Structures are given as structure tokens and as C-alpha cells.
Amino acid sequence: MLLNQKYLIFLILGLALALTGAAQQDESLLIGPGDMVQVSVFDTPELSQVARVTDAGSIPLIIGGDVKISSQTPETASRIIEKVLLDKHFLIHPRVTVTIAEYATQKVSILGEVKVPGAYAINTPRSVIDVLTLAGGLNGEADRRVVIERRGTREKIPYFVSNQADKALDSAVTVNPGDTVIVPKAGIVYVMGDVARPGGYTMTNNEAQISALQLVARAGGTNHSAVPSSARLIRKTGNSYADTPLPLSSMQKGKQPDLQLEADDIIYVPFSYLRNFGMQSTGIVASVGSAAIYAF
């Protein structure tokens, strides 16, 4: 009976370790210099220890010497230590679990178009929504396509901050201590000429994009004196601009599909009187510099 109880206890402990290992396989947070790690050795508690990762990226084991675990996940570090204990014949079947007890870099940097950019203390991984809240949230000129740069690996992870709560929360990306969150400025598109409110409009709607018809609508629509059939799209290509006809009148009538715009695109809607038909793209581009900028 006693043997059966012992077998059951070992079975439960083994299952717990297996589940812990499986959970750790999904971890993306890497161990870094200065982190405090907990090393637990199953069935050999005298070899368990808490150690701080050195600047060289290693920890001194109680037996086995220095082992480099920097830039590894806790799961991978566990396997590395197991191999050391096995290869040096200290244990026959080593079972090791490594967890991060304390992060050395306990701040996240939030840069760009947030209300209060800066470095903020976080002790554990948190969702990007929580982290952006620390900086007061996005400001009026923010692009909703933010980028998270991972500590150590410099991996760039994109994240779209949706206005829809369920989407923003369901797809939340984790931000780890030491990461950097960059919120770029939203792109601007321009509509010039014979519209109600000519000027530049930031692409800050929920999709962070806008079509030709949507832009004209934001500008209050074309005036009665406008000639939308002669509208033009001016798009920057490298160091120059491409000036192409834009069938705005046909789009408005549903005869042509709407066109998605890119940042810095310019739509020019000419006036009906002849002196404006010949306006060159260089003049239109020059006028953009003094255009009023409107936020959506």
C-alpha cells in the first residue's frame, strides 16, 4: 500500500513538471543579465538555488560550474542545466525547472505619439493595452499600428490598436519588462482644389486607412463649381511624384471602384473655370505645405 502511495505521488509530481514544461514552451520572454532565476531540481532539493545572471549571461550552479543561460527561455535554460548535470554524471535522470524570480530591467519604454511618453515600471509581462494606458493612451496624431521591440532579440512585433474593445482585448500582445513600445505618427492624406474643406487629414480612423471617396466626404464633398471627372491623384514615388487621372465622378456614381489611399497621397479636384485646369502637380504639391491639417 505504501509503495502504491509513493508511486501515485511521483506520478502526480511528474505530471506537474510536464505541464509546467509545456506551459514554458510558449514563453517568449528571454533571460537576460541581471535577472534573478530560481533553479529547482526535482527530487534533489539540495541542488535547488536562486542565482542572479551575470553580465556574461551565466549562473554558477551549486555543482556543475558556470552555465550560460542568457538569451534563453526558462524552458530552454532548464534543458541546458539538465544536460550539464547529466554529462558531468552528477545525476542520472535530472529534472530541472527554471523560473524568473525577478527581472533586472523592470521598465518598459513607450515612445512616440502617446500623451506621456517615457519609461514605466512593470514587474511582469502585461498586455500592450495596459502598457499604453500607463502613458496616458494614444494622442490625436497616433497611428494605430504600433510596434513592440523585444528586449535582447530586438524582434519587431506589430500590433493594431483597434477601437473595438473585443478586438483590442482578444488580440492583445504581451509586453515584457525591458521591451520598447513605439507609436508612430499617423499618415496624412490631402485633398486640394474645389472641395468644402481642402487640407490634410490624418489617417487615424479605426482602420488606419482611407479611400478616395471617404477623404472627399471628410472634406465636406465637392463644391457645385467642381469638376470631379477631371480629378487627379498625385502620389509620391521615391523622390518624385506621379500624377494620374482619378475617376472621382465615376466613383461617386458607383461606376468605378473606390481607391484606397496611401500616406502622403494628394487628391486634386479642379474648379470649373479654365484657369485651374492647367495647374501642374508641382504647384499642387507646393500648396500642401500650407494646408490645414484635420484629425478624424
**CA distance, first residue to last residue:** 74 Å
What's the pLDDT, averaged over the residues?
A: 84
Strand content: 25-35%
The side-by-side strand order for the widest beta sheet comes to 16-15-17-13-14-18
Number of strands: 18
Examine the secondary-structure arrangement and name the CATH architecture of the largest domain.
Roll
- The helix content is 10-25%
Rg (CA only): 29 Å
Which fold name corresponds to the CATH topology of the largest domain? Outer membrane lipoprotein wza fold like
Question: What order do the SSEs take from the amino end to the carboxyl end, as H and E?
Answer: HEEEEHEEEEHEEHEEEEHEEHEHE
Uncertain residue segments:
6-26
Largest sheet: 6 strands, mixed
Structural class: alpha+beta
What is the name of the CATH superfamily of the largest domain?
Outer membrane lipoprotein wza domain like
Determine and state the CATH class of the largest domain. Answer: Alpha Beta
> What count of domains describes the coordinates?
3
- Indicate the overall shape: rod-shaped
Number of helices: 7
Explain this structure:
The chain has helices spanning about 1-25, 75-85, 130-135, 165-170, 210-220, 250, 280-290, and strands spanning about 35-40, 50, 60, 65-70, 95-100, 105-110, 120, 125, 145-150, 155-160, 175, 180-185, 190-195, 200, 230-235, 240-245, 265-270, 295. With about 300 residues, it is an alpha+beta fold. It folds into three domains: about 1-100, wza like fold (2-Layer Sandwich); about 105-185, Outer membrane lipoprotein wza fold like, CATH 3.10.560.10; about 190-295, Outer membrane lipoprotein wza fold like, CATH 3.10.560.
